[in-house]
Design a protein that fits this description.
Blueprint: E1 12-15, H1 17-23, E2 30-33, H2 55-61, E3 64-66, E4 70-74, E5 91-95, E6 100-107, H3 114-124, H4 126-135, E7 140-147, H5 157-164, H6 171-191
Parallel strand pairs: 6-7
Antiparallel strand pairs: 1-2, 3-4, 4-5, 5-6
Helix pairs in contact: 1-6
Length: 194
């Protein structure tokens, strides 16, 4: 994937949608990229004094990237004080300096379900955003749905979502390409099934 640089100073978040389509569910993968930042972003170290590398701890840390300015979770539930039904967005991105949190949820629906999916994603995590602001003392928490139809049709709201994440405006081209290649792969696998 060619390197795209954001004209804005915050880090750029690249989402690989092709893995979501190919697997048939949202097993999100994300990379945090910014010149000079990608070498400092690392997995948090577990301060386990017994010297044993427990497999459970290493699995938990594989879903978190963190440095002094940012924290990035994926495939991880957010524990809250009260029970919330929808507490597992695909990606949770926290800017520690500005105290802003982004709950990014990715979907690849059929074209006729595109608008409904975006609305559902925004409403689904509204209670979680309120809880995150209170628990983590954040100034703002926003739900950012990233939805592209399985045929590559993009909604008007996708450009707003990319802008809120400070992504390059042409990132949608890479997302479309990934979705279409993933859809073709699924169709090819289905036709070759014996």
């Amino acid at each position: 994937m060619p390197e795209l640089h954001s004209p804005l100073p915050p880090p750029v978040l690249y989402v690989r949608v092709s893995s979501l389509v190919a697997s048939g569910h949202c097993s999100s993968r994300a990379l945090l990229r910014r010149p000079g930042l990608d070498h400092t972003l690392k997995y948090p170290q577990d301060n386990n004094d017994d010297g044993n590398d427990d497999d459970n701890n290493s699995n938990n840390n594989n879903n978190v990237l963190e440095n002094e300015n940012f924290k990035l979770y994926w495939n991880r539930s957010i524990l809250t004080d009260k029970t919330i039904s929808f507490n597992r967005p695909d990606i949770t991105f926290m800017n520690k300096k500005t105290k802003n949190t982004f709950l990014i949820d990715i979907a690849v629906p059929n074209t006729h379900n595109l608008v409904k999916t975006i609305t559902d994603k925004q409403n689904k995590y509204q209670e979680l955003t309120n809880e995150i602001c209170a628990m983590w003392k954040q100034k703002a928490a926003q739900v950012i749905p990233i939805a592209i139809s399985s045929t590559g049709v993009i909604p008007k709201s996708l450009s707003q979502s990319l802008t809120r994440l400070n992504l390059h405006p042409n990132t949608y081209i890479q997302l479309q390409k990934s979705v279409i290649l993933g859809t073709c792969s699924i169709v090819r696998d289905f036709l070759n099934y014996k």
